[in-house]
């Protein structure tokens, strides 16, 4: 179905990340590739003076390690991309760089900031040059129930 899939993994539950990765594998063409992407949102420069000098590097390495571990645990070969910036813009630009034909992201419970600033998913859908699949979380607690380990956050 899809040759190159960008799988956007946010800071949500591990169960969501696992579901996204499994869905990406199910949608991938034989010989295709999955790029697992996590974006560490920009930190305003005025706050960087309050953080350790190696904060960004440590955050990237930690996220790469956690994503690689999750992919290994699920038996999913994937390229890991962790970047610092604006999530929606980076998902769209990496999809363009990799000539992806699908971006797979997860929705979340809408809050007031989505109405004021728009959500990452909304921005990706509007600006992507390829198909975007939005994976919806189960609406009811009895659907897709997870063990406590699966329900823990990836990050």
UniProtKB/TrEMBL annotation:
Domain UspA per the UniProt entry, residue ranges: 1-134
InterPro entries in the record: Rossmann-like_a/b/a_fold, UspA
Superkingdom field: Bacteria
Entry's family note: Belongs to the universal stress protein A family.
Name the UniProt record assigns to this protein: Universal stress protein
Organism, scientific name: Rhizobium leguminosarum bv. viciae
Lineage per the UniProt record: Bacteria, Pseudomonadati, Pseudomonadota, Alphaproteobacteria, Hyphomicrobiales
